[in-house]
Design goal:
By secondary structure, the protein is of the alpha+beta class. The chain folds into 2 domains: 177 residues, 3-Layer(aba) Sandwich (NADH Oxidase); 36 residues, no CATH class. It contains 12 helices and 4 strands. The longest helix is centred in the middle third of the chain and has 24 residues. The model has no long low-confidence stretch (mean pLDDT 95).
């Protein structure tokens, strides 16, 4: 197996960091790798905010579902879907007026543009993650940045056509990382030519390891199986409800400006 595949297969989320800053060489390499990520039409529909202010990191640790390790991460990068830069450039160059002159209806970014920009941002983020892993730098995705839309917008002065796709923490491991967390088998995830909706027996087989772990250590939540436990802990949790509310607010702000 080549070195690149080894890096990908051994990677796991890291939430405990050594008390040392990232070497400038490593920080720069991670950022440069992100900027070389594939991007739609070479438009680079994303921006990256490096969070260095400790007060902001402390606040993020609270607003992102109370995760204290975030405040201690040596490098914190916020990846934004960003159409604002292009809209400002279009306005500066008279692009809407040009479109109108040629009989085309000028428009503002809509849902499809947002999704495309989100893809750009996530591709850049994952490229940064793989680059970091190859340098011995661990990382952890913080999807909870999607919560508390109004607070996050104010914290980072985010304009209308931006969207906080993900937050990434980086740092050197405090101790040797454990083995990668198991994933579902390929046969349940990879389909050929058409979507295959799993039958009850296939779902049971796919989830068997989760059910075994549940049986060995059942939570005190009232759940009777792993499906119920996940539903209570993840899907109906307060943070999940807030995330959906916030995403609606982000999209409304993107499309309506309010």
């Amino acid at each position: 197996m080549n070195e690149t595949l080894q890096v990908i297969l051994r990677r796991r989320s890291l939430r405990a960091y050594a008390d040392q800053p990232l070497q400038p060489l490593h920080r720069n390499a991670i950022l440069q790798a992100a900027l070389r990520a594939p991007t739609a039409g070479n438009m680079m529909l994303y921006s990256i905010i490096e969070v260095t202010d400790q007060a902001l990191k402390d606040q993020l640790a609270v607003t992102c579902d109370n995760q204290p390790f975030l405040a201690k991460a040596p490098l914190v990068l916020l990846f934004l879907a960003d159409y604002q830069r292009w809209m400002d450039y279009y306005e500066q160059t008279g692009a809407p007026q040009c479109a109108a002159r040629l009989g085309r209806e000028p428009r503002t970014p809509q849902a499809g543009d947002l999704v495309l920009a989100c893809c750009d941002a996530l591709i850049a983020a994952q490229t940064a993650v793989i680059a970091a892993e190859s340098l011995g730098v661990g990382s952890c995705y913080i999807g909870d940045i999607l919560e508390n839309a109004e607070t996050v917008r104010q914290m980072f002065h985010l304009p209308r056509y931006t969207f906080p796709v993900t937050l990434l923490c980086f740092g050197y491991p405090r101790s040797a990382p454990g083995a990668p967390v198991s994933r579902f088998d390929q046969r349940f995830i990879v389909h050929e030519n058409t979507y295959h909706r799993l039958e009850p027996a296939e779902l049971a087989e796919m989830m068997q390891p989760l059910e075994e772990r549940f049986a060995a250590n059942p939570p005190q939540s009232g759940a009777q199986n792993a499906g119920q436990a996940n539903y209570l802990r993840k899907f109906t949790a307060d943070f999940s409800v807030e995330m959906s509310r916030s995403v609606r607010a982000w999209i409304r702000y993107w499309e309506e400006g309010a």
